[in-house]
Amino acid sequence: MTVLAAHRNHPTYWAFILHRLSGLGLALFLPMHLYVLSMAIGDGARLDAFLDWTEQPLVKVAEVGLVVLLALHMAGGLRLLAIEFLPWRDSQKTFAAFAGSFAVGVGVLYLLNVV
Amino acid sequence: MTSVNSGETLKVDIWRGGEDGYYQSFAVPHETSQTVLDIVTYVQRKLDPTLSYRFSCRVGMCGSCAMTVNGRPRWTCRTHVDLVAEDGKITIEPMRNFPLIKDLAVDMTVFFDKWRDANARFAPSDGDLNGFVNVDPESRERKEANAAIECIGCGVCYAACDVVAWNPDYLGPAALNRAWTLVNDVRDADPKGHLKAVAGDAGCHACHSQQGCASHCPKSLSPTASIAGLKRKSFAALLKGEL
């Protein structure tokens, strides 16, 4: 069974994959995020040192990726809520495209803000 | 997609045997307006009479001849070779997610058992014995039912669905689609019974809305839309304490 099997190659399946992968990515990020926040309580100097480290360009690029993941997961989640709780619309591919475009757009805006 | 012309030869790889079978290659002459079912029939009648497959009406009504063609589930009687051939090659396999009997013939028992498990059967009411039930064709319920009613039970949606592959108990798109038509049928005596049957762990709420069913349905139905309707109705019924 391959992920790229022909029967899976359609926009709403890709929307599912992106939603799932962004969710997994965020689930991996969240414990690290909470760990870093916990430094504020126990070791403020260590937190400051870490925050200085995050000023590096590569970390900023990763930050943009994180923002894209968040936007992707939020837009994908709203798309699913619309499917499950609002009257059905046939333009499902358009909704999936809108969710993806929204995430890329948010990423670009964040990038412009960071740079 | 295709580069073959009428009179040229197609290279056709067909799955042979059971689950641990193999692909057998055949050379089949390409003809104008040839369908994938025509190819399979040619192989059986001219090249290897031991090839097992299933078909009946040949005109897209009976839902018997679905197979996997170049990786996608399709009704073969109405799939033109010109639509699917890739550089003159076609791979034909049995449908995914079904137990294989032999070659291209799958056992559809589990598929129809799930229609039963989904309570996807019309429950007649006593009704008015002196006349017909009036069904307004413009009513929302009838429009919802009409949008889903043309299913021919071919199993293409079931073969396309990843949730079926992940959870063998999942009722599947076709059975849930049928249940949705009954929930919207004003003549049906047991709409809550239909909802109860599909509201469990392996019912409508297991659907991930990947929409492989809707992408492949040869009748252009959207079982995902029907399943979304069942999710809404069963959620509302839960809030009202009816489930």
Average pLDDT of chain A, rounded to a whole number, is 92
Major interchain interface with per-chain residue totals: A-B, 16 and 26 residues
Output the CATH class name of chain A: Mainly Alpha
The CATH architecture of the largest domain in chain B is Orthogonal Bundle
How far is the N terminus from the C terminus of chain B? 50 Å
- The CATH architecture name of chain A reads Up-down Bundle
Give the helix/strand class of chain A.
mainly alpha
**CATH fold-level topology of chain A:** 3 helical TM bundles of succinate and fumarate reductases
Chain-averaged pLDDT of chain B: 94
The H-and-E topology of chain A, N to C, reads as: HHHH
Topology overview:
The complex is a heterodimer of chains A (115) and B (243).
Chain A: H1 11-42, H2 44-53, H3 57-85, H4 92-114
Helix pairs in contact in A: 1-2, 1-3, 3-4
Chain B: E1 9-16, E2 22-29, H1 36-47, E3 66-69, E4 72-75, H2 81-84, E5 89-93, E6 100-102, E7 105-106, H3 109-117, H4 140-148, H5 156-160, H6 162-166, H7 173-183, H8 191-198, H9 212-216, H10 223-239
Parallel strand pairs in B: 1-5
Antiparallel strand pairs in B: 1-2, 3-4, 3-5, 6-7
Helix pairs in contact in B: 3-7, 4-7, 7-8, 7-10, 8-10
List keywords for this structure.
heterodimer, A: 115 residues, mainly alpha, 3 helical TM bundles of succinate and fumarate reductases, B: 243 residues, alpha+beta, Ubiquitin-like (UB roll), Fumarate Reductase Iron-sulfur Protein, Chain B, domain 2, 2 domains, five-stranded mixed sheet, two-stranded antiparallel sheet, 10 helices, 14% strand
Note down, in words, how this protein is organized.
The complex is a heterodimer of chains A (115) and B (243). Chain A has 115 residues and is mainly α. Chain A has a single domain (11-114), classed as Fumarate reductase/succinate dehydrogenase, transmembrane subunit (3 helical TM bundles of succinate and fumarate reductases). In chain A, 82% of the residues lie in helices and 0% in strands. In chain A, helix 1 (11-42) packs across helix 2 and helix 1 crosses helix 3. Chain A is elongated. Chain A starts with 10 loop residues before the first helix and ends with a helix. In chain B, strand 3 (66-69) and strand 4 (72-75) form a beta hairpin. By secondary structure, chain B is an alpha+beta fold. Chain B folds into 2 domains: 9-106, Beta-grasp domain (Ubiquitin-like (UB roll), Roll); 109-239, Alpha-helical ferredoxin (Fumarate Reductase Iron-sulfur Protein, Chain B, domain 2). Chain B starts with 8 loop residues before the first strand and ends with a helix. In chain B, the strands form 2 sheets. Chain B has a 5-stranded mixed sheet with strand order 2-1-5-3-4. The chains are: A mainly alpha (115), B alpha+beta (243). The A-B interface holds A 1, 5-8, 10, 12-13, 16, 80, 83-85, 88, 90, 92 and B 68, 70-73, 96, 159-160, 162, 165, 208-212, 214-216, 222, 224-225, 228-229, 231-232, 235.
